[in-house]
Amino acid sequence: MRIAMVGTGYVGLVSGTCFAEFGHTVICVDKDAQKVATLKQGKIPIFEPGLEDLLDRQIQSGRIEFTTDIKYAVKDAEAIFIAVGTPSRRYGRDADLSYVHEAAREIARNLNGYAVIVNKSTVPVGTGEEVERIIREERPDAAFDVASNPEFLREGAAIEDFMRPDRVVVGVTSPRAQDVMREIYRPLNLNETPILFTSRETAEVIKYAANAFLATKITFINEIADLCEKVGADVQQVAKGIGLDGRIGGKFLHAGPGYGGSCFPKDTVALARTGQKHNAPQRIVETVVAVNEDRKAKMADKVMAAIGGNVRGKKIGILGVAFKPNTDDMRDAPSLTIIPILQQAGADVAAYDPEAMEHAKTMIEGVEWGKNPYEVAKGADALVIITEWNEFRALDLKRLGETMKSRCIVDLRNIYKIPEMKENNFHYVSIGRKEVGPEALAPLKKAAGA
């Protein structure tokens, strides 16, 4: 089939490349000429494991093209996917649908035959109806259907998620549109992937509900971690104990500094706003949003408490600034809250991240960026693990201890075992677990006047 992909951001680029891998002919269109030129060379502007190699193969096969000409992209396309950004508005925090509406108008002006226009962007319920209205106003004579096909891609594992998904959700309004969408996803029949056809509104709600539920699980276990610290329990064992219950499951029960990224923060807020708009308050989700924002700031307090409370003039090393490993995405990353609070308290911050530093440099000022974990740890009064990159999981603890000013590690991802930290004489602070080695803190407390 011939598919047009409007937008070459994260979702559009991954989806377009994977559709080409399915054997479809894909034309990706974007207004950014420089970005299009880069993509034509097989180079991608984001970090996503395996995507650049997969894209290069599709370019070589001739199954994918990039253009700035929407008329060319839309011409003769049987399905036209809208994969543009829907960020939260600065004030009010509703989803900004201006890019979606603009894409709909441009598609309408260039339609030359029947096509299914598919919302791939994450959009509030009712957006499919609005897109249909816009296109109908522009082109009363056009033959088309509007469908909703939300994405469920995890950054860092997007290709696997697209090629072997748990499910595909498609909201349609006609048998003809359903037949087109079924044909697009026919290659997944080999894996017996469930394809759920629903109404458009149902598909739109499914996307927000799924992300809000996962965000709720994260926030729930984070609050349980706080309780564990107070009563002497171990949150990792608690998570395992409840996760073995098939009704609960163990995924997303990992305590940490709060969720971030391109989806959860934006989508939970949008769902809460949608509930308010329709007089169906989503009080659990509203609380999740508030608790998560508060948690990020509390993590900075946790770091300061670990080195005696007073961080003025102290060097704090940060390992990982991206919101999660295997991505360079900095959107709503906990580091964007934690680092500025530490700086405002007078700390000197050094940081290292395998992929996200270039993005982070445009978002955080006054940070000394290191080339590796050991450079960041040199002379540090504390080392803080914010992102659980694999290369941080087996650090040379002896080397760290010798290079640091004080043997203090604050592990906000619980990637180390308490016994090995105690064995290496570290003052080790983690999430929802016992603090060990407090004797290593005594000189710091004395120096701080505690």
What does this structure look like?
By secondary structure, this protein is α/β, with parallel strands linked by helices. It folds into three domains: 2-198, NAD(P)-binding Rossmann-like Domain (Rossmann fold, 3-Layer(aba) Sandwich); 208-292, N-(1-d-carboxylethyl)-l-norvaline Dehydrogenase, domain 2 (Orthogonal Bundle), CATH 1.10.1040.10; 294-447, NAD(P)-binding Rossmann-like Domain (Rossmann fold, 3-Layer(aba) Sandwich). It is 43% helix and 13% strand. The chain has 18 helices and 14 strands. Strands 3-2-1-4-5-6 form a six-stranded parallel sheet, with helices on both faces. The chain has a six-stranded parallel sheet with strand order 11-10-9-12-13-14. Strands 7-8 form a two-stranded parallel ribbon. α9 packs across α11, α11 runs antiparallel to α12 and α12 crosses α13 (335-344). The termini are far apart. 47% of the residues are buried.
